[in-house]
Amino acid sequence: TDKYAVVGYPIAHSKSPLIHRLFAEQTNQDLSYEAILIDNEDTSFNWAMADLKQRGYKGINITVPFKLDAFEYADSKSSRAESAHAINTFTFNEDSSTDGDNTDGIGLVNDIEINGQRPFKDQRVLILGAGGAVQGIMEPLLAKQPACVHIANRTAKRAEVLGQRFETDIPVTASGWDDIPTDESYDIIINGTSASLDNKLPPISEAVLKNNSLVYDMMYGAKPTIFLNWAKQHQPSCTVMDGLGMLVGQAAEAFYLWRGVRPETAPVIAEVRKLMA
Ligand code: ATR
Q1: Please, which residues have CB within 8 angstroms of residue 101's CB and are 6 or more apart in sequence?
Q2: Taking a C-beta distance cutoff of 8 angstroms, is the pair 77, 71 a contact?
Q3: CB distance 130 to ligand 1 below 6 Å
Q4: Which atom of ligand 1 is nearest to the CA of 194?
Q5: Is residue 151 in contact with ligand 1, taking CB distance under 6 Å?
Q6: What's the pLDDT score for residue 41?
Q7: Which residues constitute the domain of residue 194?
Q8: Are residues 238 and 260 in the same domain?
Q9: Does the CA dihedral 24-63-197-131 come out positive or negative?
Q10: How many domains in the chain?
């Protein structure tokens, strides 16, 4: 039985062990997956990784607050990891070296394209927020050839800096909340701010919404988030999705890196949601 785990602080409520167990059942893979707490005060991240390698783990997911430590630790990094400047997946090699990747962005992109049935190609995309979460999705999203991407953030400067980082033919623009261009509305709107955590709405105009917009909140919970409720209220025809699909999607991509098979995410999202209710 090959061993995998997720590390973080805190970690007790992680859904990753459940998600990977469901993937393993679905694809008939023989593996174990645990949640392991790394106590920042007693144990350094590097020491914990050396210990896990020594105990024969094949791969590790890394969550809050260690994604930057993981970025520093990896011996080789994928381009997704480089562009996200964060790592959430390690593969430990036979020679004890560590490959680092970031599957968060592709997890979101696949959730929207596969489960939301909305390919990004030629779509007008609005992204709210410019922090770590948004940085992580930019490269996989731009690779899907949207028509354009506008990044809006409370701190406009941060959106501008992020927007300028990517070399692409796709028009990427940036602004603060009040200057979002709404001469045309958006096909896909993604909330990547942490405002939903405080039950707060990014203060944007409902003019960004149109008929059949797909509205996505990277946050999730037992109930629809405040942002998704806002969208539905102003544009009942829009499709809303929360970040549970992104969580399951990043896990699916990590599973694929380790096992070479891509599990189906929709039944796993449904199962995890049932247990959250
Ligand atoms: P994460 O890793 O979750 O992205 P982060 O890097 O701290 O965390 O970024 C948080 C994002 O949420 C930022 O875009 C932040 O806006 P600023 O760049 O202006 O700080 C945004 N954010 C946090 N709280 C917010 C709030 N109450 N209203 C609007 N935006 C908020």
Answers
A1: 77, 78, 80, 81, 87, 88, 89, 90, 91, 254, 257
A2: yes
A3: yes
A4: 12
A5: no
A6: 73
A7: 111-242
A8: no
A9: negative
A10: 2
Sequence-ordered list of residues with C-beta below 8 angstroms from that of 170, at least 6 positions apart, any chain: 142, 145, 146, 147, 148, 149
Distance CA 83, CA 14 (A): 25
Residue written as token pair 């890196």: 257
Residue recorded with tokens 């008929």? 211
140 and 195 co-located in one domain:
yes
Question: Atom 2 in ligand 1: which residue has the minimum CA distance?
Answer: 132
Q: Is 154 in the pocket of ligand 1 (CB under 6 A)?
A: yes
The amino acid present at 226, given as its one-letter code, is I
Instruction: Indicate the average pLDDT of the chain.
Output: 96
Selection from 240, 213, 220 nearest residue 229 by Cα: 240
Which of 4, 10, 38 shows the shortest CA–CA distance to 23? 4
pLDDT in tens, 227-242: 999 999 999 999 999 9
What is the ipTM metric for this complex? 0.96
